[in-house]
Amino acid sequence: MNLPNKLTCLRMLMIPFFLFFLIFPEVCGYNVSRIVAAILFALTSFTDMLDGKIARKYNLVTDFGKFMDPLADKLMVFGAMLGIIIINGGNAVFAKVFTCAAFLIIFRELAVTSMRMIVSSSAGIVVAANIFGKLKTVSQIIGIIVILLEPLIWDGYIASYVMTAIMVATTMFSGFSYFKAYWPHINSNK
After folding, report:
1. I need a labelling partner for 9 at 20 to 30 A (CA). Which of 64, 93, 139, 157 fits?
2. Alpha carbons 158 and 139: distance in angstroms, whole number
């Protein structure tokens, strides 16, 4: 169990704590819960960036990491989106908009992950993250943090709506870029 894999496991362990503070604000108060949830999400996101850099720099890439790192990333983002839907029930319009955005983001993540598995197994090609995938990840992290903290700053969801739109746009664009690049490697006759 090398350092990048330990960081991935730490990320997996931090997700339930993040969700606890996010969806149970009555434990320590609305404001404190949101701040703690945002800090835990930011730290969790930081471990994602850190484990990848360490694994590549020191050639510590393992099959365990290849499997668990993307799984931890998906759990982190999906958990955050579901928690945001739960806590924003008081603002019905934003909750509906964000639910539609979450559906599109989850759909894209599952579609690209499935395509990666098929291309890898049938054509032997490893689909590496491209710049659009990295921008997608950054927009999701920033968007989730903004959505968590904006209600503590002022009433209204202006930044949350903007970040939700940016998250969906970068997520869908990156999904299209992956499918455009790798669709020719999918054999529909198999």
Report:
1. 139
2. 16
